[in-house]
């Protein structure tokens, strides 16, 4: 369910202006925006110079309108440059943060190699792990030196004595290597 049947639009921004919102109508594929598929669209516009961001989203209509967007690559035919805009997030009212449009800055691999990919991985990891830090959750950290647990309780107490046997068992253990 990572594809979408909704109408997708994009706005491209460069140093000389923007395209305004353009609906992506005709892909080189027979069915557009399918999971795992790369779609290619031609967007006519005046030359915008160096690109710095895009805004991409959908109208939220139709069955299965939620969409997981990995990235957008824009090939500039004038300069023969490729501009990459990383997303790696849902555009879905029922997933992630509920947004169906995203503003994506250009990835400048020469200045910040891998920086956006690392940020995306950090956000993805936090999205998967944040449940552990919600109210009412007891966290346990295992200390390899003392072979005991350090517990962070929901009421704010910390048991740092390193009790080797915890009544919570191994609810959650984090191994930290220094």
UniProtKB/TrEMBL annotation:
Residues 1-105 form the PLAT domain. It comes from the Eukaryota. CDD domains: PLAT_repeat. InterPro entries: Inner_ear_hair_cell_LOXHD, PLAT/LH2_dom, PLAT/LH2_dom_sf. This is LOXH1 protein. It comes from Sinosuthora webbiana. The lineage of its organism: Eukaryota, Metazoa, Chordata, Craniata, Vertebrata.
